[in-house]
Design brief:
Layout (H helix, E strand, L loop, with lengths): L1 H9 L2 E4 L11 E10 L2 E12 L7 H7 L7 E7 L14 E15 L5 H8 L4 H34 L7 H23 L3 H6 L1 H28 L6 H15 L3 H9 L3 H21 L9
Antiparallel strand pairs: 1-5, 2-3, 2-5, 4-5
């Protein structure tokens, strides 16, 4: 039933609000909106649909759009926040917004009926849609259980294996993880180089045990692979490159050439070996189900 309600929300339609009233929380404001910085237009939207649900629209904009009716015009100013301008070129300046309201709308959840079943799953009844949902949820639970088993196997091996790790391997993996973390900070949080430099020591401290475990797991899996004669064949590698080429929209030849640069092909082979070892361990693991009381 939750999935049904979720689908109703996902396929909701926008319908006009016909009663004569001002905009309120939960509405969608349809408006022409233009913004200015230093007197110059920086953005313009015609018939923009702005959510008046708290948390979905910038608070300063949200508050200024409440209480408006179709035909109303409004001008207001919002200070540029640091997170919106990581380079600091415009911090503490104000953006001027000019708004003209066209109409008010609301989201109306789709009716759970045969038409929705056809649209979402290409089946001809709600009952058949329910069957499809059960299949999806069952498959999701199976995959989650499989992931949990793999995680437990990995944790068991790490906790019950003692190894002297080569410092050079750990250092190289740590630098790789720090590089990834920096890229994420820039891409997702719009962090400036100065902000990243401040977090350098914290990143190193946080990611060192991660790097150690990854290197340790690599040595453990390589040894299991040797002992159990688990090998990555050329056919295994070829099939994986086929999948990656399809995913990235490249030819197999071009992707292979890219992978051969910087020994990425060797890394891919190592990753496949670890997957095959994990599959071997999962198949031979003694799984105990613990029921909560």
């Amino acid at each position: 039933q939750k999935m049904m309600r979720y689908l109703g929300e996902q396929y909701a339609e926008f319908v006009p609000i016909l009663e004569d009233r001002p905009s309120q929380a939960g509405d969608y404001l349809v408006c022409d909106m233009e913004s200015f910085l230093d007197g110059k237009s920086i953005q313009r939207h015609a018939a923009a649909k702005v959510s008046l649900e708290a948390g979905k629209t910038k608070p300063e904009v949200y508050e200024n759009l409440l209480g408006l009716k179709p035909g109303d015009e409004k001008k207001f100013f919002v200070k540029v926040a640091k997170e919106d301008d990581p380079q600091g070129a415009h911090v503490d300046k104000s953006i001027e917004y000019r708004v003209k309201v066209t109409s008010l709308e609301k989201r109306q959840p789709a009716e759970i009926n045969d038409a929705l079943a056809k649209k979402v799953f290409n089946v001809d009844s709600v009952d058949k849609m329910r069957e499809e949902i059960v299949k999806i949820l069952t498959d999701s639970l199976r995959k989650q259980a499989d992931q949990d088993t793999r995680k437990q196997i990995r944790e068991y091996l790490l906790e019950n294996t003692s190894l002297d790790l080569p410092g050079s391997f750990v250092d190289a993996q740590l630098e790789y993880l720090i590089g990834q973390a920096k890229e994420n900070l820039i891409r997702e949080q719009k962090a400036s180089p100065a902000d990243i430099d401040k977090k350098q020591d914290d990143l190193r401290k946080e990611l060192l045990p991660v790097a150690q475990n990854q290197v340790k797991a690599m040595f453990i899996f390589d040894e299991i692979s040797r002992l159990e004669n688990i090998e990555v064949t050329e056919n295994d590698l070829s099939l994986e490159i086929d999948k990656l080429a399809l995913y990235y929209g490249k030819t197999k030849e071009n992707l292979t050439a890219d992978l051969e640069k910087g020994d990425a092909l060797g890394s891919l082979r190592s990753e496949l070996r670890q997957r095959k070892v994990m599959e071997f361990l999962r198949e031979h693991a003694q799984i105990e189900t613990i029921h909560s009381s």
